């Protein structure tokens, strides 16, 4: 009985120490589809997202520090990704002169299909190739296979807004603007 109690106590302590997962406390239990705005004093550290773009160029989100970054995870085969892309493309143009950088994260996709997708929708910002989904799995507060999802990072590269599912067309620009205004 004592051995069982010790095992249960050890397991409970481990879960508490690990936060029951990889997510920071401010995001735990909020992995539902929708928008999560993180209060300014609680913005979340991001892992260093970097890789090769669809055109073979290096892309590094940490090198964009000083800008607000919109990081959108997508795939050419994803229906909601197709629906949200026109909004993202329009917003990327709207905010281009306001210190905002858009970066895509093309997840578990075929390169040719992804390149066709980018051409079809007129996506001008770079997309990092994440063919095995390893980068997606590191995003804080994002379920490991959630597509699409969009993270808005503050000028220090910390997570300020997390969107699981398609970006809300009517309010997306105001979410970006709120991070610019911080």
Tell me what you see in this structure:
The protein is globular. The strands form two sheets. A six-stranded mixed β-sheet has the order 1-8-7-4-5-6, with helices on one face. A two-stranded antiparallel ribbon has the order 2-3. It has one domain: Glutaredoxin (3-Layer(aba) Sandwich), CATH 3.40.30. Strand 5 (100-107), helix 3 (111-121) and strand 6 (127-130) form a beta-alpha-beta unit. Helix content is 29%, strand content 22%. With 182 residues, it is of the alpha/beta class.
Brief descriptors of the model:
single chain; six-stranded mixed sheet; 4 helices; disordered N terminus; Glutaredoxin; alpha/beta
How are the SSEs ordered, and which strands pair?
Elements (H helix, E strand, L loop, with lengths): L1 H17 L15 E4 L12 E3 L5 E3 L7 E7 L4 H16 L5 E8 L3 H11 L5 E4 L18 E5 L5 E6 L7 H9 L2
Parallel strand pairs: 4-5, 5-6
Antiparallel strand pairs: 1-8, 2-3, 4-7, 7-8
The ordered string of helix (H) and strand (E) elements is HEEEEHEHEEEH
What is the typical, i.e. mean, pLDDT?
Answer: 86
CATH architecture level-2 label: 3-Layer(aba) Sandwich
Helix count, per DSSP? 4
Oligomer: single chain
CATH class: Alpha Beta
Number of strands: 8
Number of domains: 1
Largest sheet: 6 strands, mixed
